[in-house]
């Protein structure tokens, strides 16, 4: 039996980088991964997990949008009845330079995703 067999794991920012790698590791350990992201690359991550014999389901969710997050939470509760692991990985980096050089809109988006989105 794998360490995370029969566990439900949510990974935000699961399309690329650390989120993608974490989703793949969690699935390889037996978790059913609920992969969240806004990127079209999310389907590739989920497909790769499923092709490797793991379990993953894609959810297009913008974690800076309270309504989308609530809709996901309601659906996950209805379908899975519980969540065992949450990896709040989603974040944005607009490459705007130093924080004092950020346009207000960029700063607001970063705070909405990186800070409030994981709240």
From TrEMBL:
Q: Which InterPro entries match?
A: NAD(P)-bd_dom_sf, SDR_fam
Residues spanning the signal sequence? none
Keywords per UniProt: Oxidoreductase
Q: Name one GO molecular function term.
A: oxidoreductase activity
To which protein family does this belong? Belongs to the short-chain dehydrogenases/reductases (SDR) family.
Name of this chain's protein: Short-chain dehydrogenase
| Source taxonomy | Bacteria, Bacillati, Bacillota, Bacilli, Lactobacillales
